[in-house]
Amino acid sequence: MGKKDASSVKLPVDQYRKQIGKQDYKKTKPALRATRLKAEAKRSAPGIRDIILVIVAVLVFLLVVYAFFYLNLSTELDLDVDMD
């Protein structure tokens, strides 16, 4: 008799899991598919931080190249002015 009484009492964790399972069944297939696709896209997509880092690196490189040419050409122009 003790076994019968013990089996009728459910743990709160089991009740919670059962409620969550019922909620999942209430979702439609397109909603579940959309959720899955969104999660996959989030995992596979490059982070915005990575994109910004690449853009900043390219801009710094272009700035260095521009500064190099600017300084070389400006010193050549100064020498031409001094000779006249």
UniProtKB/TrEMBL annotation:
Q: What is its main location?
A: endoplasmic reticulum
- Write down the superkingdom of origin: Eukaryota
Keywords for this protein: Endoplasmic reticulum, Membrane, Transmembrane, Transmembrane helix
- Lipid bilayer topology: Single-pass membrane protein
Against InterPro entries, the record matches this protein to: TRIQK
Transmembrane intervals:
51-71
Q: Which PANTHER family match?
A: TRIPLE QXXK/R MOTIF-CONTAINING PROTEIN, TRIPLE QXXK_R MOTIF-CONTAINING PROTEIN
What is the name of the protein in this document?
Answer: Triple QxxK/R motif-containing protein
Species annotation:
Cyprinus carpio
